[in-house]
Design a protein that fits this description.
This protein is an alpha/beta fold. It has 11 helices and 12 strands. Strand 10 (266-270), helix 8 and strand 11 form a beta-alpha-beta unit. The structure holds ligand FNR.
């Protein structure tokens, strides 16, 4: 039988109830610049679980304090962070959704103001900090960039350990899925791309060297999550910089197989973010699906593939799954405007049988 958007998805010991995942989306809503989740996160993530999502992924959650994009980002760099996240994961699971966390490090794109404050580089005098990257090349902002320091060998080992500790805390907090953020020009993507990685040691140069840290992080996260729980990795399939030596889809196909061997179950296929010169051809419905599909078709392993980008309509998400173009429809902005997107999609597609409307809300869906 053909799968559709309401078919469950089995990954390891986890059964995801349908194919709608809420994409990680920063909320920039930590009150005290301490990385601790607030009522906002509880309501934001909890509502999408109530709204029928199969998977609810947290925003980019920093494994190190210096790995936050803004001072208001969520973190998981201490056991206190874990303890505040635990009741949120518990509530999400109680609503039938699978709670997932995106483990992140912003690298040279850390230390910025929030989007509604201009996403400007945040200087140390204003509460910003020195960033770290594979090479000491700051992100080319229009304004002065915070200082970027090259990670040495010990620094790289510390980053891998931070992802490991983040995954341990995520598991202890009750998250069933850990997604490694290796996209959008943040630290792990900065190692992958020759645009940002100018190293000449075993973490730079060849494909194998540039991908080494991500394989090490994936192995560490897999190790901590255990054999039962799924591990996802989000990648940028292309840098959209064909005019120079950069990261592209061919490398992404090869990487997907390597990550599968390192313990990843699903590759979440996004794109871009490494450099402001990126030339994105077109942004619209399914604009990144062709990359997901290509990776899925050309991969030698049976790693699952999620697609994200411009999924806004019920029929569109359903068609992606029915036509077997990806395993998971990962939805960002539509979930911001409609926390109940999957429930509304079920009504629209005549599939009320496939969702559980919470008893408290049933009269609203009669
Ligand atoms: C994002 N995106 C994003 N991606 C990610 O991997 N980690 C994150 O924390 C964020 N944060 C974030 C915040 C906000 C407000 C938006 C709108 C987006 C990207 C997001 O997950 C998704 O990939 C894109 O929005 C494209 O999908 P949609 O919105 O077209 O469905």
């Amino acid at each position: 039988m053909t799968d559709d958007a309401f078919s469950s998805l089995e990954i390891r010991d986890t059964t995801v109830r349908n194919r709608f995942a809420m994409s990680p989306m920063c909320q920039y809503s930590v009150d005290a610049r301490d990385g601790l989740a607030t009522d906002w996160h509880r309501v934001h993530l909890g509502s999408r679980a109530v709204g029928g999502a199969g998977i609810v992924l947290t925003e980019a959650t920093a494994v190190e304090e210096r790995g936050r994009i803004t001072p208001e980002d969520l973190g998981v760099w201490s056991d206190d962070h874990r303890d505040v996240l635990a009741p949120i994961a518990e509530f999400v699971a109680s609503q039938g959704a699978t709670p997932g966390i995106q483990l992140a490090h912003a690298g040279r794109k850390a230390s910025k103001t929030r989007p509604w404050e201009g996403s400007e580089p945040l200087q140390p005098v204003d509460g910003g900090w020195e960033t770290v990257a594979p090479s000491a090349v700051p992100y080319p902002y229009d304004d002065e960039s915070p200082v970027t320091t090259r990670l040495d060998g010990d620094g790289i080992a510390d980053v891998v350990d931070s992802f490991r500790a983040g995954a341990r805390r995520a598991r202890e907090a009750g998250f069933e899925i850990a997604e490694v953020h290796a996209a959008h020009g943040y630290l792990l993507h900065e190692f992958l791309s020759p645009v940002t990685n100018r190293r000449e040691d075993e973490y730079g140069g060849s494909f194998e060297n540039r991908t080494r840290i991500l394989r090490e992080v994936t192995e560490a996260v897999r190790d901590e999550m255990g054999d039962e729980r799924p591990v996802f990795v989000r990648i940028s399939a292309t840098d959209w910089l064909d005019d120079r030596r950069s990261w592209d889809v061919e490398q992404s196909v090869r990487l997907a197989d390597d990550l599968s061997d390192a313990g990843a179950d699903l590759i979440d296929v996004s794109s871009g973010g490494i450099h402001p010169d990126q030339a994105i051809e077109w942004v619209g419905p399914n604009y990144q699906l062709r990359f997901a599909e290509r990776i899925r078709n050309e991969c030698e392993t049976d790693v699952k593939i999620g697609t994200v980008g411009g999924i806004r309509a019920a029929e569109q998400a359903d068609a992606i799954i029915r036509n077997d173009r990806a395993d998971l429809a990962i939805v960002g902005r539509r979930f911001l405007s409609d926390p109940y997107f999957p429930l509304h999609a079920a009504v629209e597609l005549g599939r009320e049988d496939a969702v559980d409307v919470p008893v408290q809300y049933q009269r609203g869906f009669e």
